[in-house]
């Protein structure tokens, strides 16, 4: 696997190949805002990555993969230790995938295929033989992967914008919003629903996934998110995702 050190500069646009796979072990890493001429499939084997885009933010635990089309400006922030993987596709291959950012479930097969692509040398011939079939399987699996509700639009209402400037602190506690904005929780809920198409509880889910993926205990998650007990937090998580936190990450 082409393995990068945490402080190694890397620009996929400098390599003349249709497919590039890399891996890195990163801790408290911030990529900064950037873009590529190629598309990017980003996933982790361990840890959680927060991706911010123009008026959007998403959380990427090991159960999911993010697709970022060519030319889309983005920033990846990784807390604690993240076993990071990335597959870059040239513009021709990228046309076979969605023309918008998408977060998808990663099956065992898709994870194995992506890992194999990441292990391939930069000079691999992707037009023939096993690499060609591996790439074709990867594109088919990505096309069939179910989208996940982890890509959340940012509200632009002027009453909320000052509290959303620090994306690393999203989502703000609901009571903090109520106190500082001077609006009721119902009003804040309506603002989120009107501007993002999603409720405030989906923002809590985003934070819950980040906490769990970075090794926080259920007790810690319940406390930070304002739940009265572990069981209340588990019930919330199951109501939002259809499974318990343990089942979600398993």
TrEMBL record:
Q: Which parts of the sequence belong to the HTH araC/xylS-type domain? A: 157-250
- Keyword Cell wall biogenesis/degradation attached: no
The scientific name of the source species is Pseudomonas taetrolens
Please identify the protein, giving its name as recorded: AraC family transcriptional regulator
Pfam families assigned: AraC_binding, HTH_18
> Which UniProt keywords are present, listed alphabetically?
DNA-binding, Transcription, Transcription regulation
Query: Lineage, please?
Result: Bacteria, Pseudomonadati, Pseudomonadota, Gammaproteobacteria, Pseudomonadales
Q: Name one GO molecular function term.
A: sequence-specific DNA binding
Q: By its UniProt entry, which InterPro entries does this protein fall under?
A: AraC-bd, Homeodomain-like_sf, HTH_AraC, RmlC-like_jellyroll, RmlC_Cupin_sf
């Amino acid at each position: 696997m082409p393995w990068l050190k945490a402080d190694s500069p890397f620009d996929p646009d400098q390599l003349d190949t249709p497919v590039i796979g890399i891996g890195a072990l990163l801790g408290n890493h911030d990529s900064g805002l950037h873009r590529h001429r190629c598309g990017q499939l980003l996933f982790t084997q361990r840890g959680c990555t927060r991706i911010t885009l123009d008026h959007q933010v998403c959380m990427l635990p090991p159960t999911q993969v993010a697709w970022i089309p060519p030319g889309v400006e983005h920033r990846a922030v990784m807390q604690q230790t993240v076993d990071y993987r990335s597959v870059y596709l040239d513009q021709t291959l990228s046309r076979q995938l969605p023309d918008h950012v998408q977060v998808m479930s990663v099956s065992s097969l898709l994870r194995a295929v992506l890992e194999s692509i990441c292990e391939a040398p930069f000079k691999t011939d992707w037009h023939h033989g096993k690499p060609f079939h591996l790439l074709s399987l990867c594109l088919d699996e990505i096309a069939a992967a179910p989208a996940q509700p982890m890509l959340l639009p940012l509200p632009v209402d002027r009453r909320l914008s000052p509290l959303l400037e620090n994306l690393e602190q999203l989502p703000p506690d609901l009571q903090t919003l109520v106190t500082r904005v001077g609006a009721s929780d119902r009003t804040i809920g309506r603002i989120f629903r009107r501007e993002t198409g999603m409720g405030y509880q989906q923002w809590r889910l985003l934070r819950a996934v980040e906490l769990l993926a970075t090794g926080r205990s259920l007790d810690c998650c319940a406390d930070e998110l304002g739940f009265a007990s572990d069981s209340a937090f588990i019930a919330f998580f199951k109501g939002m995702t259809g499974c318990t936190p343990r089942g979600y990450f398993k």
